[in-house]
């Protein structure tokens, strides 16, 4: 019995991305970010798309790959505090629907940003770099790996 814990999951952080309406909320959030950036008068359409892509990928990297632990009280003896949110997602099982969704969504945003910037060299380099920084940590081979000891503790 877990005293003071209002949920039945060992780690609710593992199931939050599968909760009802999460994917729709995520897509609407990205859409709202883009609309806000488009409404700024001195941003052109290519700049707004590149900023949408870069801000989205920066937020995704921080939230999924940099921050470790869980905001919930868990009875797992501290195992979750050593894992990033991506590593906790679906209990670490690879190629689940939520992992596929959060892998494909930055790729789709990258294609949209590249198309609307007309493959301009500067925007293309920024968008590609941003995409790679968020896709490489999602590879199954890098599950639990800390390159150069970064984010080890």
Mean pLDDT: 87
Unreliable spans are none
Order of helices and strands: HHHHH
Q: Rg, please? A: 17 Å
| Domains, number | 1
The number of distinct helices, counting runs of at least 4 residues, comes to: 5
Euclidean distance between termini CA atoms: 29 Å
Give the class from helix and strand content and strand pairing: mainly alpha
Tell me the major beta sheet. Answer: none
Subcellular location: Membrane
Protein name: ORML1 protein
Family: Belongs to the ORM family.
Subunit structure: Ceramide-sensitive subunit of the serine palmitoyltransferase (SPT) complex, which is also composed of SPTLC1, SPTLC2/3 and SPTSSA/B.
How would you characterize the overall build of this protein?
The structure is a single chain. The chain is mainly α. The chain has helices at 22-38, 45-66, 85-88, 97-116, 121-135. Helix 2 (45-66) packs antiparallel against helix 4 and helix 4 (97-116) packs antiparallel against helix 5. The two termini are 29 Å apart. It holds the Pfam family ORMDL.
Pick out its properties.
single chain; 5 helices; 153 residues; globular; mainly alpha
In short:
The protein is an all-alpha fold and about 150 residues long. The protein has helices spanning about 20-40, 45-65, 85-90, 95-115, 120-135. The longest helix is centred in the middle third of the chain and has 22 residues, at about 45-65.
